[in-house]
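thoughts on my protein:
***
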Amino acid sequence: MRLRKEILNIAQYHKVVFVSPRFIDRYNINNAIFYGIGRAIPTKEDPRFLFVDGNYKIKVTKQILGYHSIPKGDDLVPSISAASILAKTYRDEWMEEMDKRFPGYGFKNHKGYGTLEHRKNLEQLGISRIHRLSFCKFLRSSESDPSLFAE
């Protein structure tokens, strides 16, 4: 949290965008990334040059000055590192809140990552509203309870 506070104090611009699990399941993770990037871009009165972590040819409809995709950018470019820290700390905070709303899944511990604990909790409790069905495909088998996949 200390780094997040420092980043927020010096950043000229930042915006954290959450994309729903249903959106990701419907349009796939790459399109969700493009959608999130598009929502994070300021209005066309203030176009920006973007640095993007990864190896993407981004698709945005808003006016930008340009962009540069950089594999491992969070290790190489300070603004991408800062964005990564903001995204992770806000997501971790959100997962801790989801731990209260969906007890038993252990979101506070694993933060939604596909750990063994997370997978075991899913096998026991089934899928919650905040799970991506695309993540939970490992649960499908001939013995799966069909109610696990009810929306």
In short: Residues 144-151 have pLDDT under 50 and may be disordered.
